[in-house]
Amino acid sequence: MRTMRVLIIGGGGREHALGWAIRRSAERSGRAVALFFAPGNAGTEAIGTNVPLSATDADGLAAWAKEAAIDLAVVGPEAPLMAGVADRFRARGLKVVGPERAAARLEGSKAFAKALMAATGVPTAEFRVVDDAAAARRAVAEFGFPVVLKADGLAQGKGVLIARDQAEAEAALAAFFVERRFGDAAARIVVERFLPGREVSVMGAVAGEAVVLFPPVRDYKRAYDGDAGPNTGGMGAILPPPDVTPEGLGRIEREVFRPILAGLKERGLEYRGILYAGLMLTPEGPKVLEFNVRFGDPETQALVVGAPLDWLALLSAVADGTLDPSDPALRRPAGAKAPQAAVAVVAAREGYPTESRPPIELPALDGDPPARLRKEGAPGDRAPLEEAPDELVLFHAGTFRRAGKLFAGSGRVFALVAGGASLSAARARAYDALRRLLPAESGLFYRTDIGEKEAAEMDVGEPGAKAPGDGAGPEAP
Could you report the per-residue pLDDT of 246-262, keeping only the tens digit for each? Predict the structure, then answer.
């Protein structure tokens, strides 16, 4: 049997999760796969080989992949796509999951994305694109408060500010145009009318006009419980949110995904990769807050545990351009038993996201922590953890090895993901595992309320009117 060689570009928890999911797909279907990660982390080196190349080194990555006879490349973060990694790979005849740079502007330029939404009729908030503070003030006055201000370019997830009064609006404009906190990414900004409602993320595999939507996910961006504190890259995610029905997902495909892809095609851009829609569920229906051109993080960590699709076959079909939404094998491989819910809880270094701290050793993460926890069992669980090995997984993010020891840098360190028959069961399993895994003085923190409101709603069967979200999208602080 020939071994398929797969390169995953990136070094965070999302990339570890994708590698884990691809390997599991291969094992279940009797295929052989060799995983490579560029640059990877301490968790990815346990399931594959880390390659010491920057994720944005488009020429270096393409040259290495050609020499290493890579069969499939999957791009994790957005920056490599804007750096032209997918373009370089396709130019060398390499199969890659990810749009080319021109199409990646859906995420790389909010002004481009908003203009395309307006042209194709995709529902979104009313907006103005401005390039100076005076024009921004006029737009703010037009929309009233609260109002949303977004850097046009990539700003590492922190380029969205919500102003609730004139003083906050002036502070935001100073950050954009005077302090230049976001550099060239905020040479122009988008001012948007605020959208109240509940946020949800929907990702899908796309190959031209073929689309396979994944189950919806909700993520949590604020650092602390109760949606307090600064914006982060994401402190947790749940699957499923209680307020998106199958009919609602079909509407999202019809009103959001298909028109935007048709608009790209009209402009000579064939999309081949993962498309992510950050949505606000409003009384008028779903409206787009933003598009991302890749898998979300930490949404992916919850997705691969809660929806164990045949990720290897699905991603291969995207890269080949042979994606068939009617193929049931892509949606549920033989032998896979999917949990009905999944909860991902991110543990980050104390001080995140505003402080950078020196690395610390983390012996608690060494080896296979979920395996240890499964052997110990979890008091109160309806089923022993050892009977559900795929329902408790730890994905590394900001970890590395030095002299054989495991260390955590600044930022997000890992995501502990638990699956279960219900959101409540998954939450209980995740938090029980975290309490037993991390000592009191670990130097890490995590939110204790991921999925709390949604689990309560699902237990009584009545989704509430409010949920986490500020109306500005996943990047909002």
Answer: 999 999 999 999 999 99
B/e letters for 291-302, b = 16+ CB within 10 Å, e = fewer, are bbbbbbbbbbbb
* Whether pTM exceeds 0.70: yes
Whole-angstrom Cα distance, residue 313 to residue 335?
15
What residue ranges of the chain have pLDDT lower than 70?
329, 331-339, 377-390, 462-477
d(CA 376, CA 357): 33
d(CA 170, CA 378): 51
Q: Within 13 Å and on the Cβ side, how many CA atoms surround 241? A: 26
User: What six digits make up the tokens of 17?
Assistant: 């999760």
- pLDDT digit string, tens, across residues 416-443: 999 999 999 999 999 999 999 998 889 9
HEC sequence for the chain = CCEEEEEEEECCHHHHHHHHHHHHHHHHHCCEEEEEEEECCCCHHHCCEECCCCCCCHHHHHHHHHHCCCCEEEECCHHHHHCCHHHHHHHCCCCEECCCHHHHHHHHCHHHHHHHHHHHCCCECCEEEECCHHHHHHHHHHHCCCEEEEECCCCCCCCEEEECCHHHHHHHHHHHHHCCCCHHHHCCEEEEECCCCEEEEEEEEEECCEEEECCCEEEEEEEEHHHEEEEEEEEEEEECCCCCCHHHHHHHHHHHHHHHHHHHHHCCCCCEEEEEEEEEEECCEEEEEEEECCCCCCHHHHHHHHCCCCHHHHHHHHHHCCCCCCCHHHHCCCCCCCCCEEEEEEEEECCCCCCCCCCEECHHHCCCHHHHHHHHCCCCCCCCHHHCHHHEEEEECCEEEECCEEEECCCEEEEEEEEECCHHHHHHHHHHHHHHHCCCCCCEECCCCCCHHHHHHHHHCCCCCCCCCCCCCCCCC
Q: Which amino acid is at 433?
A: A
Q: Is the dihedral of CA 338, 340, 345, 346 positive or negative?
A: positive
d(CA 97, CA 78): 12
Q: Which of 221, 252, 240 is nearest to 473 (CA)?
A: 221
